[in-house]
Amino acid sequence: MSNKEKTVADKVAFLLDDQEMLTYDRSQMLPEQQSEHLKRLDNQLNEGFILIDKKITQPDLQQKTQFLALNLVHALSKNDDNSAIMMFSYLVTRLPDLKQVKAKTKQQESGGQQIGIEFVFDEIKSVGQKIDFHPNTSIH
After folding, report:
1. How far, in Å, CA of 14 to CA of 20, rounded?
2. What band does 136 get if pLDDT is binned at 50, 70 and 90?
3. 97, 124, 65, 115 alpha-carbon torsion, rounded to 10°
4. What order of strands is seen across the sheet that includes strand 19-25?
5. CA distance 87 to 125
6. In three state form, how does the secondary structure of 11-78 look?
7. 23-27, 33-37, 104-108: lowest mean pLDDT where?
8. Closest among 31, 21, 119, 25 to 79, alpha carbons compared
9. Distance from C-alpha of 69 to C-alpha of 90, rounded to nearest angstrom
10. Measured distance CA(72)–CA(15) in Å, rounded
């Protein structure tokens, strides 16, 4: 694997409505303080929560990650970057094969918002291609 491919493979993206909102670089060590915070979050999640109108008393990893991904979308919509980063860090560290999280929102007629979450384990985040802009170029 080349350095460029390794760099791409180390990155995990969170996309909201096809726009990349967060990127996590697995090649960077998670600071000890943040690791401890994620352990505390895990303990809080183990106490249970409500997921899609259902009380979850003994959540498994899938339920925890779904709950946090939904809350991550809410954090981003409220510009709560610290919470969003913490929740995304949890997802990436607890799901070692995760490549992307894709969230889609849809406004409902009732005024609410429907959120769909997809965890992607088989795609590698693509590397953008640099395009040079030449403002004085004629198109005709």
Report:
1. 6
2. very low
3. -160
4. 19-25, 11-16, 100-107, 113-120
5. 19
6. EEEEEECCEEEEEEECCCCCCHHHHHHHHHHHHHHHCCEEECCEEECCCCHHHHHHHHHHHHHHHHHC
7. 104-108
8. 21
9. 10
10. 11
The CB-based long-range contact list for 116-120 (8 Å cut-off, 24+ gap) reads 117/66, 117/69, 117/70, 117/73, 119/65, 119/69, 119/95
Q: Look up residue 109 and give its amino acid.
A: E
Neighbours of 43 (CB within 10 A): 9
Examine the pLDDT at 1 and tell me if it is beyond 70. Answer: no
H or E, element range at 102:
strand 100-107
- Write out the two tokens for 115: 């959120």
Structure tokens at 102: 């894709």
Residues contacting residue 50 through CB under 8 Å, at least 6 positions apart? 56
How does the average pLDDT of the chain come out, rounded? 85
Give the count of alpha carbons within 13 A of 78, CB side only: 10
**What end-to-end distance do the CA atoms of the chain give, in Å?**
43
